[in-house]
Amino acid sequence: MLLRFLTLAGLTLFLTGCGLPGKGLEAQNLFEDKAARERAMKIADVSVNSGNYLSAIDIYQKLLSRNKFDEDVLYALGSTYLKAGAPNEAVVVYENLEEMTHDDIRPLIGLGRAHLFLYRPETAALYFAKAAELAPDNIDILGGRAIAADMAGDHQDARKFYEAALDIAPDDLRIQNNVALSYLMEGRYDAAVTSLSKLAFAPQSTAQIRQNLALAYGLAGDEAAAARIARLDLDPEAADNNIKFYNLIRRMKDRNLLRRYLLGARSENAGAT
Prior knowledge:
Number of strands: 2
Radius of gyration: 24 Å
Distance between the termini: 57 Å
Largest sheet: 2 strands, antiparallel
Strand order of the largest sheet: 1-2
Helix content: over 70%
Order of helices and strands: EEHHHHHHHHHHHHHH
Oligomer: single chain
Strand content: under 5%
Shape: globular
């Protein structure tokens, strides 16, 4: 009897030329399981994109109950935990992945991001540094290292990582935006205003970048300019509330409060700079 081998998604199927009923049924079940997994992954992906993280997490957990070593599902679960604001759960997932994989930067980046969410810059920096040994020019890693440094108050060190990232992707608005925010955290408001003014009205700019410029003006004490920029994307009441908050931060002169305010949103995108 001639045996033919077909490798599919890590499974080796043994196909015989004589069509034994048991073997044929087994192969059919394997293909059906694979198709069902793919459908479930697509549904989970749609759920994540629509912000329905709990539904996606439930799907991933059910898939893992059938194969706890499915790396693609584990990576998707870890990422979704972070998006859902559950960094402790993400740590467990990425730690398991780190044990399963070798010379793979993805679990290290995931652990770095999770510890940024937990406001543990020193721990995050260790994971990003370990990943950098494998991929020193990876922008995700450079961005994560920069945010960890900013979080620790080492803004000059952070900008070294940003500069390295800009050497690779000089037109990346996210990196340039983060450089400006690093200036803000250091108290260099004029430098932040100058940097953000160049970005805020670029064709590919975003409302977030414009609101960062409003913040920079507010911290610099130019309330009129801050209000003018804020109202480009916000209704008057929301813009006025933001200006009051910026004034409060400026009067308190609390660098740690400002750092936590700025870095909270950035931690979600740590790997993407």
